[in-house]
Design brief:
Elements (H helix, E strand, L loop, with lengths): L24 H24 L8 H29 L1 H9 L1 H15 L2 H28 L6 H26 L2
């Protein structure tokens, strides 16, 4: 019985594939920046535009205590959750609460639904902890060390764009 001859693969025989554009760290910087612009950035802008200011002081304090208390608690578990379910699902779950809370601010301003503000604050607090854990990991962990500052700059430009947009609208309305 003869043994099969081993097949040797050399570098010339290996298939050459280029990097796909949506698997680059630059693309990830733009994605995480866009998510930061749309979720907490515009949420911050909406608060600056008066939706948060239309609430009673007790409701604002209760909602902020819920948001930041739950967010701080869930930030502790954001890393292990991201390791378990993956970064993309953690980011997706991390942005779900922001539109709910923004909708609650709008309906409170329009119709006086105070209970929805508290429900939205709980949803935002739970999801924000996951969002910050995943956003920080993608923004700081994905780029190559030599390009980390450049990609953080891209991410922060997008991230601060939401509050800048809200401030520009407030300035334009007050003129």
């Amino acid at each position: 019985m003869t043994e099969p001859t081993p097949i040797s693969v050399t570098a010339e025989d290996a298939p050459t594939t280029g990097r796909v554009w949506y698997r680059t760290t630059l693309y990830n910087a733009f994605v995480i920046g866009s998510v930061g612009f749309l979720a907490p950035g515009l949420w911050n802008a909406m608060n600056s535009l008066g939706a948060g200011g239309a609430e009673t002081p007790y409701l604002v304090n209760a909602a902020n205590a819920l948001v930041f208390g739950l967010m701080g608690f869930l930030c502790l578990f954001g890393g292990p959750i991201a390791n378990r379910i993956g970064m993309n699902w953690t980011l997706l779950l991390g942005v779900i609460g922001y539109p709910i809370y923004s909708a609650a601010l709008y309906t409170n301003n329009r119709y006086g639904n105070e209970w929805f503000v508290l429900v939205g604050a709980v949803a935002c607090g739970l999801s924000a902890g996951l969002f910050w854990a995943s956003e920080g990991a993608v923004a700081l962990g994905y780029p190559e060390p030599a390009k980390r500052g450049q990609y953080m700059n891209i991410w922060l430009w997008f991230r601060t764009g939401g509050p800048l947009l809200g401030s520009a609208i407030v300035l334009g309305l007050n003129q």
